[in-house]
Design brief:
binds adenosine-5'-diphosphate; 4-stranded parallel beta sheet; binds 6-O-phosphono-beta-D-fructofuranose; Rossmann fold; elongated
Length: 324
């Protein structure tokens, strides 16, 4: 028989992402609507192990749907990667009467949820990361806001790049994944898009491309470089020396993780938050919520973690033609 859930814990873990607050709000309100109690676990698994656990009522999540960051705060916690840490976490859940935990984070955080599920605490994962690097889902909470933030910043760099007839290398986040770079590259009309999944490290090709574009009369040359490749400053120096075109590097950094979530991030995060509660109420555990082919769906965490995802080949190929 499915375990009855009376009290739901919720935590955010790993890098924060705009829309996490919308998800927390939805968890709290959907749970209360279903007659459940909610406990907020602060600072991810680190806060769980420190018993930083607070009761949450509907009013505690008012005025947060529009805010970036996470009111529960977030952390990375090495101790929770050990069997002892996980055992301690499960015991603390039991001590606080927490029967189910909703974990909002990335793949690393899901591994923690998987371990808690194995120790008898029902868990549901929600994909929260600006990187879009979770294989089971086409959408992750925060990606839409982050790419829009980065896109607006790159538009601004492009203005000054054009005025000064420069080449600009703009580095965007994404850890080992190139999704933010690909989307911005297309949205900003970049002349070159460097993705960790695709880049062959042939800098001479970039140099030739800049020189060709100069001959064609292009007044700027925007290179969107993914964090997974990095080294934008030294790349800029080498490119300037080889082309004679003044080149500047801009690293957008953590500004991409902040700011008010877009409408899409608010709506999808809200839907996913409510769905996580509904899954727990149905007695489900060790599941992760995703978005695929137009539907919100859920997967077994073990299967989700085993999936792989590639950069969309067609979009990558056409991006080269679009910046002719
Ligand atoms: P993300 O969730 O964004 O992928 P991390 O990889 O930093 O971010 O993971 C966040 C946290 O999840 C880690 O600090 C750790 O507490 C927990 N975690 C990561 N990997 C494991 C694991 N193999 N087992 C248990 N917990 C893990
Ligand atoms: O996973 C989100 C992310 O912002 C990545 O894009 C980036 O590599 C990493 O987190 C940065 O982490 P930190 O906030 O620890 O510098």
């Amino acid at each position: 028989m499915a375990k009855e859930i009376n009290t739901i814990g919720v935590l955010t873990s790993g890098g924060d992402a705009p829309g996490m607050n919308a998800a927390i709000r939805a968890v709290v309100r959907e749970a209360i609507a279903k007659g459940k109690k909610v406990k907020g676990i602060k600072r991810g698994y680190a806060g769980l192990l420190q018993e930083e656990i607070i009761d949450m009522e509907a009013k505690d999540v008012s005025d947060i749907i529009q805010r970036g960051g996470t009111i529960l705060q977030t952390a990375r916690c090495m101790e929770f990667t050990t069997p002892e840490g996980q055992q301690k976490g499960a015991e603390i859940c039991r001590k606080h009467g927490i029967d189910g935990v909703i974990v909002i984070g990335g793949d690393g955080s899901f591994k923690g949820a998987q371990k808690l599920a194995g120790l008898g605490i029902n868990t549901i994962g929600l994909p929260g990361t600006i990187d879009l690097d979770i294989a089971c889902t086409e959408y992750t909470i925060g990606f839409d806001t982050a790419v829009n933030t980065a896109m607006e910043a790159i538009d601004k760099v492009r203005d000054t790049s054009t005025s000064h007839e420069r080449c600009s290398i703009i580095e965007v986040m994404g850890r080992g994944a190139g999704y933010i770079a690909l989307w911005c590259g297309i949205a900003n009309g970049a002349e070159d898009i460097l993705l960790p999944e695709k880049y062959d490290y042939d800098e001479q090709k970039l140099v030739n491309h800049i020189i060709e574009n100069r001959k064609k009369g292009k007044q700027h040359h925007i290179i969107v470089n993914a964090e997974g490749i990095g080294h934008s400053a030294s790349m800029a120096k080498r490119i300037e020396a080889a082309t004679g075109v003044e080149t500047r590097a801009t690293i957008l950094g953590h500004m991409q993780r902040g700011g008010n979530p877009t409408c899409k991030d608010r709506v999808y995060a809200s839907t996913m938050g409510a769905m996580a509660v509904d899954l727990l109420c149905e007695g489900k555990s060790n599941r992760v919520v995703g978005y695929r082919h137009g539907d919100f769906v859920d997967f077994d965490i073990d299967e989700a973690l085993a999936m792989t995802k590639e950069i969309p080949e067609y979009q990558y190929e056409i991006s080269k033609n679009l910046s002719l």
